[in-house]
Write a structure and sequence with these properties.
heterodimer; A: 224 residues; mainly alpha; MetI-like fold; B: 262 residues; alpha/beta; 2 domains; four-stranded antiparallel beta sheet; three-stranded parallel beta sheet; 24% strand
Amino acid sequence: MNERLWSILVESFPKLLGYGIRVTVPLTVFSFSIALAVALLVALIQYAKVRGLQQICRFYIWITRGTPLLVQLYIVFFGLPSLGIKLPAFTAAMLVLGFNEGAYMSETIRGALEGVSRGQIEAGYCVGLTFPKIMWHIALPQAFRTAFPALGNSMISMLKETSMAATISVMEMFRQAQVINGRVYESLGLYLEVALIYLLFCTFLTFLQRRGEKRLSGYGGKNS
Amino acid sequence: MKKAFVILLVSLCLLPLFAAGSKEESTALDTIKTRGTLRIATEGNWTPWTYHDAADRLTGFDVELGALLAESLGVKPEFNEVPWESILVGVEQNVFDIACNGVGYTAERAEKFYFSDPYLYTEAVLVVRNDNDAIKSLDDLKGRKTSNSPNSTYAQLAENLGASVDYVDTLGETMMMIEQGRVDATINAKGSVESYLAEHPEARIKVVQTFPGEPVCYPIRKGEQTDSLLEAINSFLAQARADGTLTNLSVKYFGTDLSKAE
């Protein structure tokens, strides 16, 4: 490896990492929080079969899963202003990523809820618990444990999907690599470098996921 | 075990960096002639340089000139349509022989590539929304927001002038950024802005300043193997300049003769 490339990589590393920490990580955390809230709500509505709302949820999942993330970003950022809704780039990216992943995660959570045996729910009713209480104390804790690995998966894929926000002018880690590359023309080196930082972040998330799984397995016994 | 895997993965990723200086016996020109094709990288979505006409045929100034160049080398042109992002790296990595894509000469690019003699001299323009009266020239860009694609040398110009740049991927998006008031201005190639305005006469933008841009050249891989290729390209360009081909093509695609330096 020549000296010029090496010095470019060394110089750009803190810059890239900085954008990763200041933009990519917050964007992931905020979007994931939105996604989790949306997913939980949608899953519960579907599970409880609330008439009317259930159809709306199905429609939302259908649209979101059936269209590319890139198109959704474009519509919200470039399209909505013609309806008078002009969102800043970061907000638009956060909402789109959140609602996009939320659709997938809602199915994960719904699947996990369906996995909780009906007998337990009925037992809850028998001892006089209300539906929200049954959900909160019986179904959701078990569903959460089942869904946990898949949710971790979603978070990891979301971390990398934040790079799509670059297309609507969010200056995040990947775009920063492109901009540096625009000056020095070392795309291979710079993209590998930025890939390494994503890998670093994802490794950390994987580590957290392992820890979480271990904790959850000690909670509630084996025969759930 | 996990650690070993990570190290293995990382070193695999870095392998191409070390292999970049691999040897090659014959010259690039010989290889092209033996192969019988000139591997050309072009975007294919940038009017009037390289685009698809109504019949979906790849055409444009750079496409026609590139085909003539291949002909002069006695080979067939092989047009590869790739995004701007991949064009220069493709040339550098010897995936393509040449980029026919209106590439402007800059000192920074010249560190990495051989540049042919210029074949066009474009002009650049400063564009704002049509209700903007605050920005009249490049001097007014300080503290303003502009928009460009990430590899644009105009983005660097804007940054040097004290503007902050919001990056998008295409000219159409750049213009939307201006129309929606997300940024104040863009510096762009005059020809591209004009062809955008031809497609979108209703666009709420205006040109407030025109100034000379970078000379447009062919970038090729740097090194001993490409010396003779560079010579062949330059003699083709000299010929094309002398017999009026450059002028004719320029008038055909840009409506004016851009082949001479002002």
